[in-house]
Write a structure and sequence with these properties.
- This protein has about 400 residues and is of the alpha/beta class.
- The protein folds into 2 domains: about 1-70 and about 355-394, Urease, subunit C, domain 1 (Roll), CATH 2.30.40; about 70-355, Alpha-Beta Barrel (TIM Barrel).
- Helices cover about 25% and strands about 25% of the residues.
- The protein has 10 helices and 16 strands.
- The strands form 2 sheets. Strands 1, 2, 3, 4, 5, 14, 15 and 16 form an 8-stranded mixed sheet that branches. An 8-stranded mixed sheet has the order 6-7-8-9-10-11-12-13, sandwiched between helices.
- The longest helix is centred in the middle third of the chain and has 20 residues, at about 185-205.
Length: about 400
């Protein structure tokens, strides 16, 4: 067992392991009693009756529930550190409403308490985004939650999206500074102006004087990078989709508080939604409709749904509660687990490596003593890249 404490080091997996006789929920290929063979950080075999090499270290998980590591699709863990006050809050840079060149990666502290608690709860991947103060806030990053004290060595994918924001936040922040945008129409107008300037810059591709900030937006307009758009109200979501369609780029709606009101509209346009945090208070007007019925309605209509904690709004470690409460409101357990595993992975563009238990994927595995959506269940073992994390020493 590796101790990933303050002196974390990157460890190369060098011992083949076999988790034997567990109740395995693969998420994508059913549930069965079987075993998982791990080598060099990957799942090399999985099934009901697989061959276990003599040299493999046997880990008996009989009677235990085995699932893939959970995935938080939208949070600020690591960039807005728990217990640190303003000193550990690096989510928003409000000197300019258009800052696509900023990278969440540059503000992540891998020693954040929130990351340590996430590992203990079986969360092995987090998608960390800049905040929502600005219409364009910067690039998000998917990280493993343990494995090194060097954040670059935790990166699963970077960037995973370009953070944008509609609604109350940009209005409030820039109105206080007597700057644009102070209205919803100001936010939309500024985005259109910016994207039009980027398009002109792309047409003049030979120019050596490309604007640095605009160049960071080119992958969005080339559909190489998804816009991850903060929007609570239905009209803000529709405005975001309108602009995305005008400039022909892909988007994900983040929060989607009133998503249940336009579920058919989102489904028809194949727009995914990262919903939440439904457990938090109705702290402002635009999230007055907050309810756990939202992910239920969206999933029923065919929208791809992931769930979020929006940490530190809700601590990342409670991600499974977002799924459990959704089940309480009518979501199937299968869909709820997908919302914190494979759906989250697909929305973040990391499903080739995580989100389900399959041959060839990263050996990010959680062993529990019961149902992962049952509050009484305890996480007993967590593996990231095939290495068991000593959670007692975090």
């Amino acid at each position: 067992m590796i101790n990933f404490n303050n002196s974390q080091v990157k460890h190369e997996t060098d011992i083949m392991k076999a988790l034997v006789d567990g109740e395995i929920n693969t998420i994508t290929n059913g549930t069965f009693k079987g075993s998982i063979l791990i080598d060099d950080g990957k799942i090399v075999d999985i099934g009901k009756d697989i061959e276990i090499p003599d040299e493999a270290e046997i880990i008996d998980v009989k009677g235990k529930t085995i699932i893939p590591g959970l995935i938080e699709a939208h949070c600020h863990t690591g960039i807005h550190e728990e217990g640190e006050g303003w000193q550990g809050n690096d989510t928003n840079e409000i000197y300019d409403p258009i800052t696509p060149h900023l990278r969440a990666l540059d503000g992540v502290n891998p020693d954040d308490i929130g990351l340590k608690e996430a590992v203990k709860a079986g969360i092995t991947t987090v998608n960390v985004a800049p905040g929502s103060a600005s219409p364009i806030g910067g690039r998000s990053v998917a990280l493993k939650t343990a494995g090194s004290n060097i954040v670059d060595e935790l990166v699963l994918k970077e960037p995973t999206g370009m953070k944008m924001a509609f609604g109350e936040n940009p209005k409030r922040v820039y109105k206080e500074q007597d700057e644009i945008p102070s209205t919803r129409i100001g936010t939309a107008g500024l985005l259109r102006k910016t994207f039009s300037e980027v398009e002109r810059q792309m047409e003049n591709d030979d120019s050596k004087d490309k604007d640095f900030e605009h160049k960071a937006l080119e992958p969005v307009l080339k559909n190489e990078l998804t816009a991850r758009i903060h929007a609570h109200r239905a009209d803000d979501m529709i405005s975001a989709i309108r602009i995305a369609e005008e400039f022909d780029f892909d988007l994900v709606i983040e929060h989607a508080t009133e998503g249940h009101e336009i579920a058919d509209y989102l489904a028809e346009r194949d727009v995914p939604a990262v919903v939440g945090p439904c457990l938090s208070s109705k702290s402002k007007r635009e999230n007055a409709a907050r309810t756990f019925e939202t992910p239920v309605v969206l999933a029923d209509k065919g929208v791809k749904v992931a769930l979020m904690t929006d940490s530190p709004v809700i601590p990342t470690k409670y991600l499974n509660l977002m799924a459990a409460y959704s089940v309480k409101e009518g979501m199937s357990e299968e869909e709820a687990l997908k919302a914190i595993t494979i759906n989250a992975a697909e929305i973040c563009g990391v499903d080739n490596r995580v989100g389900s238990l399959e041959k060839g994927k990263d050996a990010d595995i959680v062993v529990l003593d019961g149902d992962p959506l049952e509050i009484k269940s305890r996480v007993e073992k967590v593996f990231i890249d095939g290495e068991e994390i000593d959670t007692e020493e975090l």
